[in-house]
Write a structure and sequence with these properties.
By secondary structure, the chain is of the alpha/beta class. The chain is built from 19 helices and 17 strands. Helix content is 43%, strand content 13%. The protein has an 8-stranded mixed beta sheet with strand order 5-12-11-10-9-6-7-8, sandwiched between helices. Strands 13-14-17-16 form a 4-stranded antiparallel beta sheet. Strands 1-3-2 form a 3-stranded antiparallel beta sheet. Strand 6 (214-219), helix 11 (223-231) and strand 7 form a beta-alpha-beta unit. Helix 10 packs parallel to helix 11 and helix 10 (196-208) packs across helix 15. The longest helix is centred in the last third of the chain and has 27 residues, at 380-406. The radius of gyration is 28 Å and the shape is globular. The structure holds pyridoxal-5'-phosphate. The site of pyridoxal-5'-phosphate (PLP) has 14 residues, from helix 10. The site of pyridoxal-5'-phosphate has 14 residues, from helix 10.
C-alpha cells in the first residue's frame, strides 16, 4: 500500500492514512477480504510511528471498513452500504481543462459502439454472430505452445532483444515466400512486420495523410479503418458496392475530384460484405490509381480463407511498381492475440513506414515473431489453414441453410466464397439497429450494418460471423433472429418508416 503523506499538512498523519484507506475501500479499489499490512510493517514503510497506523486502523474498524481477526491480521470489510464505484468516477467538469477538451472530440469510435453493444447484451449466453474473429477453439494452441517453448529454451540474446526493427528476417522471408506462391511478388526486404495489420494501416495513414485530406473507402467498410481515418481528421468518401465489389465508375468520380489522397480497399472477402472485387475491376482500380496518382492500400485480412471458387489476383500482384501497399495478418488465419501482421511496400515509402514504426513501438514482439516463424516453417500453417477452411466452409453452408429455413421472405444475402462473414439484408424497411435490442432479448446478437458506414446511421443490414459455432448453434441463432424479426414486424410496433438505402 503506497499512501501519499503530506508531512507539512496540518492534518494529522493518522487522519491522512484513514482518509486514504477510507476512499480506497469505499470506491472498491481495495476489495473486501484484502489483507492489510501489519501495523508495524506499514509504519516502517510510511516512516511513521506504529501508534499512528494503529490509530488509523482503529478508526476504520469503528466505521465498519476494516475487521481485525485474532492471530490472522487486518482485513478490508464489505463497507456498510456497499462499495460506491460511482464515487470513483469523476464528472466531466472535474477533469483538468486540457482533458475536458478531449471530451468534445469530433469522432466517435465505431468499434467502441460495437463493444458497448456487445457488453450491454442481456441474458446469460447469447449466440453471437457479431465477432470479427475466427473460431478460437481451432487456434493451434498445442503446436504453438511447443514452438514458443522451443524458442524460450534457446533464449539467446537475439531472442531476448528487440530484434531486427523491420521484423525477424526469417519470418519476413517466409511471408515473402507464402505471398510469392500466391502470385504476389514480395522480396523479404519489402516486408515490414507490424503489430497486427491495424498498425500497418495506421502507419500508412499517418505517413501519407494530413488533416482535411480525402480518403476513398468502400461503403460499407471495416470500422477499425473508419475509426483510424476519423482520428486523423481526414474526410472519408464512401464508394458504393455491388455484387462485383466496389463500383469503379463511382471510384473514378471520387478520384476525379483531384483531392483523393488514398484509396483503402478490402478486395478479397471484404469486411463486412464477404464479396470479392472482380478480376476486371481489379485491373481498372489500378489503372485509375495510376491515372489520378492515388496510392492504394490493399487490406488482405482474410484472403487465405477461401472455400470455393478460383483465387483472384491480389491488387499487389497487378501492381506495375510502387502503387499498392499490401497489408496482411495472422489474426484471422491463426489468432489475433499474436498481434503479428505485416505490410509489403516498395519504393521510398518503405523507409518512411519503418521509421514511423520505430517511433511507435520500436519493433513488434520479437519473441512472438520467432515463435510464429518456428510454427509456420514446419508446414503446420498450411495444415491448419486447410482444416480451418474445411470447417468454416461447412459452417458457412450451415448458416445459409438456416437463413433459408427461418428468415422471412424478402431477406437477402450473397453467399461469400470465403472469409468470415455473411452480409444479410433484412426484409422491408427493418433497421438492424432497431432490431438489435429485440434480438438480444431473444438471445442472439449480430453486428448492425450502421457500424460499417462512414456516415449513414440506419441500415437494413447486419453482419453475421459464421465461423464460431457448430451447425446446431448456427441454426438456433438464426431461429432466434427470425423470432426477433417477427416481433419487430408485429402490427402496431413502431418502426422506421423512411426508406432505407438499398446498395449491395
Ligand atoms: C478488414 C480488417 N482489416 C484489419 C483488421 C485488423 O486486424 P489485426 O490488427 O488483428 O491484424 C481487421 C480486424 O478485424 C479487419 O477486419
Amino acid at each position: 500500500v503506497r499512501i501519499p503523506l503530506d508531512r507539512a499538512s496540518p492534518v494529522p498523519l493518522y487522519q491522512q492514512i484513514t482518509g486514504f484507506l477510507r476512499e480506497q475501500i469505499r470506491t472498491g479499489s481495495l476489495a473486501p477480504e484484502t489483507r492489510l499490512p501489519a501495523t508495524r510493517e506499514l509504519a516502517r514503510l510510511l516512516g511513521t510511528s506504529r501508534v499512528t497506523v494503529a490509530n488509523a486502523y482503529a478508526d476504520l474498524e469503528s466505521e465498519g471498513l476494516l475487521i481485525s481477526r485474532m492471530g490472522s491480521g487486518t482485513y478490508v470489510a464489505t463497507p456498510p452500504g456497499g462499495t460506491d464505484r460511482a464515487a470513483a468516477e469523476r464528472s466531466d467538469g472535474d477533469w483538468p481543462l486540457w482533458q475536458q477538451r478531449l471530451l468534445t472530440s469530433t469522432w466517435l469510435p465505431a468499434m467502441r459502439e460495437l463493444d458497448s453493444l456487445l457488453s450491454a447484451t442481456p441474458g446469460p449466453d447469447p449466440i453471437s454472430f457479431a465477432s470479427g474473429m475466427g473460431a478460437t477453439d481451432l487456434f493451434p494452441i498445442v503446436d504453438f505452445r511447443k514452438a514458443l517453448a522451443a524458442v524460450l529454451r534457446e533464449a539467446d540474446s537475439e531472442t531476448l532483444g528487440y530484434g531486427d526493427r523491420a521484423g525477424n528476417p526469417a519470418l519476413c522471408a517466409t511471408i515473402a515466400h507464402i505471398l510469392g506462391a500466391q502470385g504476389i511478388p514480395a522480396r523479404p526486404e519489402e516486408v515490414l512486420i507490424t503489430s497486427g495489420s491495424q498498425q500497418a494501416l495506421a502507419l500508412v495513414a499517418r505517413l501519407l495523410l494530413h488533416p482535411g485530406d480525402r480518403v476513398l473507402v468502400e461503403s460499407p467498410t471495416y470500422p477499425g479503418a473508419i475509426d483510424l481515418f476519423r482520428s486523423l481528421d481526414v474526410h472519408l468518401q464512401g464508394i458504393p458496392m455491388d455484387e462485383d465489389g466496389m463500383r469503379v465508375d463511382r471510384l473514378e468520380e471520387g478520384m476525379q475530384s483531384g483531392r483523393a489522397r488514398l484509396l483503402y480497399t478490402i478486395p478479397t472477402f471484404h469486411n463486412p460484405t464477404g464479396l470479392c472485387l472482380s478480376a476486371g475491376r481489379r485491373r481498372q482500380v489500378l489503372a485509375l490509381a495510376q491515372r489520378y496518382n492515388v496510392p492504394v492500400v490493399e487490406d488482405d485480412f482474410a484472403g487465405d480463407l477461401r472455400y470455393d471458387g478460383r483465387a483472384l489476383p491480389a491488387l499487389k500482384a497487378l501492381d506495375p511498381g510502387g502503387w499498392v501497399i499490401y497489408t496482411g495478418t495472422f489474426s484471422k488465419m491463426l489468432m489475433p492475440g499474436l498481434r503479428v501482421g505485416f505490410l509489403v511496400a516498395s519504393g521510398p515509402i518503405y523507409n518512411g513506414l519503418l521509421a514511423l514504426k520505430r517511433t511507435t513501438d520500436i519493433a513488434t514482439s520479437n519473441l512472438m515473431q520467432r515463435a510464429l516463424q518456428a510454427y509456420i516453417t514446419v508446414g503446420r500453417y498450411q495444415t491448419h489453414l486447410r482444416r480451418a477452411c474445411r470447417i468454416y466452409r461447412a459452417r458457412r453452408d450451415s448458416l445459409v441453410e438456416a437463413l433459408k429455413a427461418y428468415m422471412p421472405e424478402g431477406t437477402r444475402w450473397l453467399t461469400p466464397q470465403g472469409g468470415l462473414f455473411i452480409w444479410v439484408r433484412l426484409p422491408g424497411d427493418l433497421s438492424a439497429t432497431e432490431l438489435y435490442p429485440l434480438a438480444a432479448q431473444e438471445g442472439v446478437i449480430f453486428a448492425p450494418g450502421s457500424l460499417f458506414y462512414p456516415a449513414e446511421k440506419d441500415q437494413p443490414y447486419l453482419r453475421m460471423n459464421f465461423t464460431l459455432y457448430p451447425d446446431s448453434m448456427l441454426h438456433e441463432g438464426v431461429r432466434r433472429l427470425a423470432a426477433a424479426v417477427a416481433r419487430a414486424r408485429e402490427p402496431g410496433r413502431r418502426l422506421p418508416r423512411r426508406p432505407l438505402p438499398a446498395q449491395v
